[in-house]
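Handout, page 2. Input:
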Amino acid sequence: METLLINALNGFCYGMLLFIISIGLTIIFGVMGVLNFAHGSFYMLGAYLCFQVVSSLHSFWLGLLIAPFLVGLLGLATEAAFLRPLYGRDASYQLLLTFGILLILDDGVKLIWGAGYHSVEPPRLLSGTIPILGNTYPIYSIFIAILGPITALALWLFFHKTSWGKMIRAAAMDREMASAIGINVPLLFTTVFFLGTFLAGMAGVLAAPLRAIGPAMGDNIIIAAFIVVVVGGLGSFKGAFIGAIILGLMDALGIQFVPQIQMALPYLILALVLLVRPKGLFGKE
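Output:
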């Protein structure tokens, strides 16, 4: 039973990390209708920038402040310079563009930081372990498990209680009508892309002390992020949160109960959802 609870906690922690990256993907798709294939590369870039800040300034907290903001600025420039001219065209143009950005960012980090792997230590405040159910558990993992719901609440308040959030929701429902009543939709889209890539960079920073930082880390996580948003429902805030928890728990508990097929479980869940409920658990037709 203790092992089951520890694995469930591991799954929730991983789920919260998945949520933070997946919600950025969900926001961008839900408002702009763009499936951003480069989202995982923005996540990877956040981890690399965190490594650079920690190496130079010796502060993880500065990395958590600086790296997501820089990733968000790059996302802002990407949307304004490259994505904006493609609105109104076939979706394949956006897919090809974001895939090209993925390749550029993957090669860019190799040129700057090399093809080897790097690591970041958790901050001193969050290093070490605490006793849980007769076992020891990393404090940093507890921090991520707490930060995930806090991030979800902050985003919900932003979208439902602020004027900017309400304008974004209006543009997501009907961009032509939003433009007709005076909302600057192009500026709004740029803001949304900044927010989505900021969250991807934030997830990369949070993942840096948990796993090795390497050029392939973005490719690995984007598959899981797409599974989360499809299972939860494309564009659904609630779906991203519930889908991330489901995928995180399946990953952790699968190791304990069905290790032979643990790696296939996310794809089996995806196939089941697509067969039974193609729009996802909380998606709309």
